[in-house]
User: What shape does this take?
Amino acid sequence: MRSWKLALAVLVLAGTACSNIPSSETRHSGFLGDYSRLVEDPYWDNSQYWVKPGLNLRQDYDKRIVLEPARYYVDPDTQKLIAERGEETAKVLSHLNLAIRRELQAGGYQLVTSGDVRSLRVRPAITGLIRNARDMKPTEYIPIGFLIGAGMQLAGVRDQQVRIFFETEIRNARTGEVLGQSVSAASGNEVSPSVKASASDTYQALDDWARQVRERLDRAYGETKGQASR
Assistant: This one.
């Protein structure tokens, strides 16, 4: 698995408000296995996706989903940091699980514990989280890693923003065939460098990403065979 310390050292910074989110390629954690077929998503910034060619969800699948609990998929050093901040990092996963369930149910999807060949299995993972200074010059960039609960006593540093990275896989619930994959990023609250970040600072990003999952499925179910799903 690619180390996040290495990944965060390879950044592409541009002039937009979220431009200092690491590029999609540097965020490939290994959770999805094959990243070679991913392409840029035209509907969501900082996102890549892949859909099985010829997939027709509306024809071949009912709106039934086995939703696996969200998990952290990170390198061992980061996993230790997560464990040390157990209560706060557990809140992040709990909020994400509830957000995805809420979005899917609002979209008319039935959540089931086991599925047949006409059901989907959704596998979500948080693959990284950083606090980085918003709209900074490359020389001012300070990676902090997966540090929910950490503060920085640095004079003159701009407010930082919580960034979360996600990977998702959709499979046939019975056969396990991979039907779709995505790599995404979302932004949470702005946090003063000297203030300890809390789980609640991630909630906006988690809600946005849960909505992204549902909207991708909505588009796929609304398309006819031969159209590309997002």
